[in-house]
Write a structure and sequence with these properties.
By secondary structure, the protein is α+β, with helices and mostly antiparallel strands. The protein has six helices and eight strands.
C-alpha cells in the first residue's frame, strides 16, 4: 500500500487513537518541511510557480472543508487564524449523487492566493517597508514604499 511506504519513509504520521487529529495537521502545516523531503529544497520561485500553476515556496496545502469552528477561538488570535486559513486551506466542492447517479463528476477546488491581500509592514533599523498588494498591474503584484526610521 502507498500509505505503508509513506509511513516507512517518515512522510506520514499516524495519529494515536483517541487523539484529536486536527491539532496534528494544523501543526504540520506550519512546521519545517525539510525532514519529510530529506533536506531536498522544494522551493518554487514565483515565475516558475505561475507557469506551472503551483504555489511559490514550500508551504504545504491542506485539502479540507472543515471550518474549524471549535478551534477558531482556542488556538490563535482571530486575525492570525484568518491569515493561516487564507494561506493553507484548499476547499473543495462537488455535486451530490441523485438516485445513485452523478450528474456532474467534476470536483472544484478553491485554492488560496499566491500572496496575501493584506497590507504588510516590515520594520528594520534603517527603514520601514510597507507592502501594498496591487491586483490590476500587469507585471507587479505589490507596491513597496520604504520610510526612513526616525532616530
Amino acid at each position: 500500500f502507498p500509505f505503508v511506504r509513506l509511513h516507512e519513509r517518515g512522510q506520514l504520521y499516524i495519529v494515536p487513537a483517541g487523539c484529536l487529529d486536527d491539532y496534528y495537521w494544523m501543526l504540520a502545516s506550519i512546521s519545517d518541511q525539510e525532514a519529510s523531503t530529506g533536506g531536498k529544497s522544494m522551493d518554487v520561485d514565483t515565475k516558475q510557480a505561475q507557469a506551472e500553476g503551483r504555489f511559490p515556496g514550500t508551504r504545504p496545502m491542506l485539502l479540507s472543508n472543515d471550518l474549524m469552528r471549535d478551534h477558531r477561538l482556542e488556538l490563535f488570535e482571530p486575525r492570525l487564524f484568518r491569515r493561516w486559513t487564507a494561506s493553507y486551506i484548499v476547499n473543495y466542492n462537488f455535486t451530490a449523487f441523485v438516485d445513485d447517479e452523478c450528474i456532474d463528476p467534476e470536483i472544484g477546488f478553491s485554492t488560496p492566493e499566491f500572496f496575501s491581500r493584506e497590507i504588510q509592514c516590515n520594520p528594520s533599523r534603517e527603514d520601514t517597508a510597507w507592502h501594498f498588494p496591487v491586483s490590476d498591474w500587469e507585471t507587479h503584484e505589490r507596491l513597496l514604499i520604504r520610510l526612513p526610521s526616525s532616530k
